[in-house]
Structures are given as structure tokens and as C-alpha cells.
Amino acid sequence: MIDVLIIGAGPAGLSAAIYTERSGKHAVCLEALTVGGQIVNTPEIANYPGIKNISGFEFSMGLYEQATELGAEVIYDKALSIASIEDETGTYKKVTTVSGKEYLCRAVIIATGARNRHLGLAKEEEFTGKGVSYCATCDGAFFRKKDVAVNGGGNTALEDALFLSNYCNKVYIIHRRDQFRGEPQNLEAVKNKENIEFVLNSNVIELTGESSLEAVIVKDKITEETRKIPVSGLFIAIGQEPDNKDFEDVAELDQAGYIASDESCKTKTPGVFVAGDCRTKNVRQLTTAASDGAIAALAACEFCNLGTRE
Ligand code: NAP
């Protein structure tokens, strides 16, 4: 019987693992993909209090080492369901995974983060890995000296454009509005790059090419004119969406699919907690993910101490 099973080993999940182990309970993280989650691909983190500058990879590895050195385990498997079980020994949870394993635990923390949003265009899936990418840090180097485009207006899009401008011949930043969500410092840095061109108030409406991406067709929302921009890479950075469907039996989802919870990180099911980007919140940042991890872990440990009943 595991004390606290944590679904996801991103910043929220690993922070929860650190707090669980330091509270004298055992934490096991189930991770479907990569330790560190989305942040592992961020070239530079400059807004985590106390750390002036660090790469997402280094930060993730630091979290992983800290959690595992304290005794937490990370198992690579994807959780499919959470069931509440009640018998003479008390109540506990059974988490079933894609590999067919079943994990019994006293408390569960859902920390599944969010996944990259897709544009939903024809050929988007076909061209993924053949010009279309959702990760500039992972794939940028393949486009050395080429012309590429970034779609989006948040920090990810701005940082991707900056990163790519160091490798690529030309970077178009295509955004559906003329105001950016990203931080002013990032926008200023993008504006100062001579090889970045803004394509504003525009949507990507088509991807063209034979066996790989050769151009994007964009439509200006104001003039309604379309324009073909020859590029060999399109980096889609239009935000994230949650992947919580598997947990809707135990946790209420909001309209956008995030797990409804407040700062207490509790869900509607006693013993099931939620932390990080997968829950309803206004600010999805590393700091808030780590904070949720701590809150959820301490609540989960308290739940274990209470003899599994709230
Ligand atoms: P985001 O802030 O949600 O921005 C998504 C962008 O994509 C928005 O500009 C949005 O346009 C646009 N968009 C959404 N759906 C679209 C669609 N279907 N078609 C075209 N455009 C669409 O996402 P993000 O940039 O990935 O950032 C996520 C969070 O992580 C944010 O809180 C961000 O600050 C944080 N982050 C922080 C750092 C850092 O601090 N170093 C780095 C990366 C990300 P509208 O503006 O018109 O809605």
C-alpha cells in the first residue's frame, strides 16, 4: 500500500513528492512521458524566485534528484482510472494504468499538467515531425538556416521565436491579434531581432506541401486577404489544454476540462487531490505548480494520518 500516489512527475507532481517524503510518507509518481513535464523544453527559466537563471531541463533534473534522493519513486506508466475502495481496513484508492497494473494507495494527487493545443488543420497530424512541431527547443536545430514560422502570442511563442531566430534564416511570428499575452520583456526582445517578422491579426488556415511542410497559408482577420508564406517549419505555440477525462468520476471538471478545485487542492472525492496546471486556476506558472504540489501533499499526508477518512 503506497501512502501517496502522484499522477504526473512535472513540477507540481515532483514538488508534491518532495513534501510527501519530507512528511514521513512514501510517494510514488506515475509519469506517462517525461519527468519535468512541459517545463523540460523551456530554454530558460528566469522567474522562479531564488533562481536567477536555469534551463528547464536542469530545473527538472534538480527536482527529480531532490525527490528521488528523499525516497520518492518515479514509475513510467499512464494512469487510466482512480477507484475508491472501502473494506474493513478502511478506505483506499486503486489506480489502474495503461500497462494493466493496479496501484493501491491511501491518497492520490492528480498532477497531469496540460498538453499542447493543436490548430486542428488538415495535414497538421501528417506533417507533425515533418515540419510541424510543438517544441522549438526539441526540434529547432533541424531548421538551421531555414525559414520558419511560430504561431501564438503567449510567452511560449515569443520565447520560441527568439530561440529560433538564433538558428534560422527568418522567423515569422503569426498571431491572431495585435496584442501579446507574453511578458513585455520577451516582446521587446523579439522586436529587437532583425530576422523576426510579425504577421498579426492573422490565422494559419492551411498547411501545404507534398511529403513535408513547404508553406503556410494565413488569413488576415481584418482585410480577409490570404497570404502564402513559404516555410519549412511551423512551431505551434497556442497554449495548452488539460487531459483529465479519465478522472471525471472522482473529480469535477470545469467547462474547459480543468479539475475544479480551489487553493485547498481538494477534489469532490476525499483522498483525491489535484495540483498544478491541470486544475482550475488563473495563473499557471512554475511557482504556482510548485505551491500546489506542497499544499496537495500536506493535505494528502494529513488524510493518511486521519486513518483515510475526512
Ligand atoms: P498562452 O499564454 O495561453 O498563450 C497562447 C496563445 O495562443 C495566445 O496568444 C492565444 O491567442 C493563442 N491561441 C490560442 N488558441 C489559438 C488558436 N486556436 N489559434 C490561434 N492562436 C491561438 O500559452 P503559452 O504561451 O504556452 O503559455 C502558457 C503559460 O505558461 C502562461 O502562463 C505563460 O506565461 C507561461 N509560460 C511562462 C514562461 C516563462 O515564464 N519563461 C515560458 C513559457 C510559458 P490570444 O492571445 O488571442 O488568446
Q: What's the arrangement of secondary structure elements?
A:
Elements lengths: L1 E6 L3 H12 L4 E5 L24 H14 L3 E4 L2 E9 L2 E8 L4 E9 L3 E3 L15 E2 L2 H4 L7 E5 L3 H11 L4 E5 L9 H8 L4 E4 L2 E7 L6 E6 L5 E5 L2 E4 L3 E3 L29 E3 L11 H20 L5
Parallel strand pairs: 1-2, 1-6, 2-3, 6-17, 8-15, 9-10, 9-15, 10-11
Antiparallel strand pairs: 4-5, 5-6, 7-16, 12-13, 13-14
This protein binds NADP nicotinamide-adenine-dinucleotide phosphate (NAP).
| Helix percentage | 10-25%
The ordered string of helix (H) and strand (E) elements is: EHEHEEEEEEHEHEHEEEEEEEH
Oligomer: single chain
Q: Write down the overall mean pLDDT.
A: 95
**Small molecules (ligands, ions, cofactors) in the structure:** NADP nicotinamide-adenine-dinucleotide phosphate
The largest sheet, given as strand count, sense and whether it forms a barrel, is: 7 strands, mixed
Radius of gyration: 21 Å
Shape: elongated
Q: Estimate what percentage of residues fall within beta strands.
A: 25-35%
Structural class: alpha/beta
Task: Please provide the count of β strands.
Answer: 17
Query: Whole-Å distance between the termini?
Result: 19 Å
> Number of DSSP helices?
6
Catalogue the unreliable spans. none
